[in-house]
Write a structure and sequence with these properties.
Pfam family, one: DcaP
Largest sheet: 16 strands, antiparallel, barrel
Signal peptide: 1-23
Keywords: Signal
Shape: globular
Number of strands: 22
Structural class: mainly beta
Oligomer: single chain
CATH architecture: Beta Barrel
Strand order of the largest sheet: 2-4-5-6-7-8-9-12-13-14-15-18-19-20-21-22
Protein name: Porin
Distance between the termini: 7 Å
CATH topology: Porin
CATH class: Mainly Beta
Number of helices: 1
Radius of gyration: 22 Å
């Protein structure tokens, strides 16, 4: 991503922090403009206009709407984003601030007249030396291993994908964080998802990043979290908690000029951390206690450079949840798979045109399923 930079000397606002000395601050802004055209074929009927899966592929949302047509086309520029960053040297200490906005996921606009959608916060954090506080990628995720797909997430089933508020400490290759807890639970017998923000124990994450002499880069991450539900649902009062955990291994392996990217993740009670919350973290049993749900997900993506300007990526992604059907019922998500192939052309470094085909299949425990075929055209200009 191309950055525009300004170097300023900031004195007044930083005098207190720098002991009265003048501090040098670099300010940069970046982002990109991206326009998408998506031709989609939903096997069970397309979701309504403005629905989330009409913006990008979200496993578990492609079962469709009975009575709607199957083929739809969507034009959008909602992925376009803007960010602003400052880096200040405070007598040998590095102070960084970063904020980024885009326009995805909101339903507070429409396609009738102005296509006016509100900006949303993607990242908003401050770092001081080894400490980071604010909202950014969860430490459990390695965003550097994500494939180069035109879909907003790409490999949605196979990767941890969460941005949230956290406090993180980095020491060399190690990262440790406490992060915002949020529990998602399936009611006994199935039904609407129960989302609980109760409990006072944050999610704990540790990650180790390492590389090889060949240029390969890897990460191993682990998470421990308390699933907690303390609230009244209907006429039933719940007060239950359970331990969840997970591990994730990700990497980028150079193959000449090409590269291979992958992520593999397993856990009990991962829930929202995987596959955009395709499965919940747990289910309530007959005693009103949380039982964790096991899950596994992963993807592999190979990117080949045809020339300096042309490249393609082939991506395969999948996720599976081990539901106890006696507790969850059959109308819960079981497995999701998707495949992508694209062709990208960059006539100059900041400008990219591309076309991508994707196929996705989701299946529930009762055997019902939904599928999506999509051809996507994109134009992207990096600021």
């Amino acid at each position: 991503m191309k950055k525009q930079k300004l170097s300023l000397y900031v004195a007044g606002a930083l005098l207190a922090m720098s002991g009265g000395a003048q501090a040098a601050t670099d300010m940069t802004f970046g982002g990109y403009i991206k326009a998408d055209v998506m031709f989609s074929d939903y096997g069970n009927g397309a979701p309504d206009s403005g629905s989330l899966s009409r913006q990008f592929y979200v496993p578990g949302t492609i079962y469709g709407t009975t009575g709607n047509g199957k083929q739809v086309v969507d034009f959008q520029a909602r992925e376009s984003r803007f960010n602003f960053k400052t880096v200040t040297d405070l007598e040998g200490h590095k102070l960084t601030g970063f904020i980024e906005l885009d326009f995805m996921t909101h339903t507070d606009g429409n396609e009738r007249v102005s296509n006016s959608y509100s900006p949303r916060i993607r990242h908003a954090f401050v770092s001081y030396d080894n400490w980071t506080v604010g909202q950014t990628w969860t430490t459990f995720q390695n965003p550097g291993a994500l494939p180069e797909n035109l879909d907003f997430v790409g490999a949605a089933e196979g990767t941890p994908f969460v941005r949230q508020s956290l406090l993180r400490y980095t020491s060399g290759n190690w990262q440790f964080s406490i992060e915002n807890p949020e529990t998602t639970v399936t009611p006994l017998g199935g039904g609407g998802r129960i989302t609980s923000g109760s409990g006072v124990v944050p999610d704990f994450v540790g990650r180790y990043n390492f590389s090889a002499a060949s240029g390969s880069a890897f990460s191993v991450a682990a998470i421990v979290r308390q699933l907690d539900l303390e609230q009244v649902v209907g006429t039933t009062t719940y007060d239950t908690s359970e331990l969840g955990y997970g591990v994730s291994f990700a990497g980028v392996i150079p193959v000449g000029k090409d590269d291979l990217k992958f992520t593999a993740t397993y856990g009990e009670g991962l829930g929202r951390y995987m596959a955009l919350n395709y499965a919940n973290a747990g289910v309530l049993d007959t005693n009103g206690e949380i039982q964790t749900i096991k899950s596994f997900g992963g993807f592999v993506s190979y990117r080949h450079w045809w020339s300096e300007q042309w490249r393609s990526s082939v991506t395969l992604s999948g996720f599976s949840a081990d539901n106890d059907v006696a507790l969850t019922g059959g109308a819960v998500n079981k497995e999701a798979y998707s495949g992508y192939v694209n062709l990208l052309f960059s006539p100059s470094k900041p400008l990219t045109f591309g076309v991508e085909f994707m196929h996705a299949l989701n299946e529930r425990e009762d055997g019902s399923d939904g599928d999506l075929n999509r051809i996507m055209f994109s134009a992207k200009y990096a600021l």
